[in-house]
Each structure stands twice: as structure tokens, then as C-alpha cells.
Amino acid sequence: VQLQASGGGLVQAGGSLRLSCAASGSILYIGAMGWYRQAPGKQREVVATITYGGGTNYDDSVKGRFTISRDNAKNTVHLQMNSLKPEDTAVYYCNADIRPEPLKQYNYWGQGTLVTVSS
Questions:
Q1: What's the CA gap between 18 and 11, in Å, rounded?
Q2: What is the mean pLDDT of residues 3-12?
Q3: pLDDT for res 78
């Protein structure tokens, strides 16, 4: 099982980016999915999570600006980021709880995609 993230880049403050993450491999079921970020010199932190049924949670710092969504048929999760701020600059990682076979579930991380917001 692999998670492949894409969509990072350089954007000016106030701009938008859309991150995508696709899960591939032997997958029976994907539970919670989420996006995390790690800024230079800081610990990785949760940005947003989404359940299989679409329930969402956001860090207070991104509420009203970021939207997480998923497509269960395509095993993908997305993060629409609007009104970006320089403090959003970080490497963004997707994460998912995946069941590759019956009765076994593991937590997987994508490779990370860099988002840089210039002031």
C-alpha cells in the first residue's frame, strides 16, 4: 500500500492550492484520512481529518480557509487551501488508516509535498 501526495508549490499570500493524495495497492477499506504538516524546526501537526462517512475536523488555525474532502471510490483525499498565509508554509503529509486484508489495519503516511507561501 502506498500514499502518493501531490499539488504542493509556491504561492503568494492570499492564494490557493489544492493538495491530493491517492492510495494504491491492496486495499479493502480506508478509514480515517487526514492531512498533517511540518514546518521547519517544528513538530508535525494535524491540519484536518475526515472519516469514511465524511465527518471532518480542522485545526483552529485553518478553519474557514481549508476544506478536506475524499472520494471513497477512488481512494483519494484532497485538501483545498484558500487564503493561504506565510505561516501555512510547511511540508504537508497525507495519512490514512488502511485495511489491506481482513482483520488487519495499519496507519500509512504519504511522502510529503512542500507548500511555500510568500508574503
A1: 11
A2: 97
A3: 98
